[in-house]
Amino acid sequence: MTVRNAIVTGGLRGLGRAMALGLLDAGHNVLAVGHLAEDVEEMERLAAGRPLVPLLADLREPAACDRVVAAARARFGGIDILVNNAGLTFTYIDPPRFVAGPRKFYELTDEITRNVMAANYVAAEHMARRVAPEMIARGWGRIVNVTTKLDTMNQKGSGPYGPSKAALEMATEVWAKEVAGTGLTINIVNPGAGANTPGMAQEMRDWSAQGTKPRLVEPREMVPPLLFVVSPAADAVNGFRFDANAWNPNLPPEHAARDTARPAGFEFYPRRAWDQEDDR
After folding, report:
1. For residue 172, what are the contacts with CB-CB under 8 A and spacing of at least 6?
2. pLDDT of 40-84, one tens digit each?
3. Residue 92: helix, strand or coil by DSSP?
4. For FRET with 75, which of 67, 103, 119, 280 sits at 20 to 30 Å CA-CA?
5. To the nearest whole percent, how much of the chain has pLDDT over 90?
6. How far apart are CA 108 and CA 25, in angstroms?
7. What are the structural domains, with CATH classification, of the chain?
8. SS3 of residue 275 by DSSP
9. Residue 52 parent element (H or E)
10. Is 252 exposed, middle or buried (0-12, 13-18, 19+ CB in 10 A)?
């Protein structure tokens, strides 16, 4: 197996931690970026001396993106994989009122809108733009974006979280077209439903109190589709989304991927595999 060098943003807790550790368990080098100092010690414990570097950075700042990329290059010699997972969710926008009645767009503040768009879309764009040229020059690379479900993006009260993820969803489709044939692929890996992270778990408890019990996706469920899209078996897989809650771990990865794959973006094409002709 070829050892790859990966950056996972939002990689010190929740979905990002699971993906960072999944890449580490698969034998890759990982730089995991987060913003809370309290998460570093736990991540170092879980890494158990293996090649994982935790780094604190606020990726809303362009200089921080530069610092993260420079740190990965200095430690590992290059960057093969970028997982854009960092973001601000509903629990940042309106923690106490999300279930009972989230604020409407005209009730938000400039600071909330600016921070969510910067964390969820702009930071991902900045990171992708900084690593793509070396991946293209090398003839191999992976950018994996984490967006969300369409019916989360457009539900009432989702702003600006939904619009920020919609921007990254559409960017994935655009970027994938622009890198086609270069050896760099750009895809999406999503939970496909609410994830069992601390903030969402509280929201689910609130929903359960109202008589509904949606299934939470465990963070570790993100790992199998992620490992597939960063593997050599996915060299031809570009511009797709894979939802972890639909992934069948009992199937060989390529079979599970074919069953799960949907084109990135918002046009509702029939499900298709990457080696089928695109009739768009």
Report:
1. 145, 147, 186, 187, 188, 239, 241, 264, 265
2. 999 999 999 999 999 999 999 999 999 999 999 999 999 999 999
3. helix
4. 119
5. 74
6. 41
7. 5-263 (3.40.50.720)
8. coil
9. strand 52-56
10. exposed
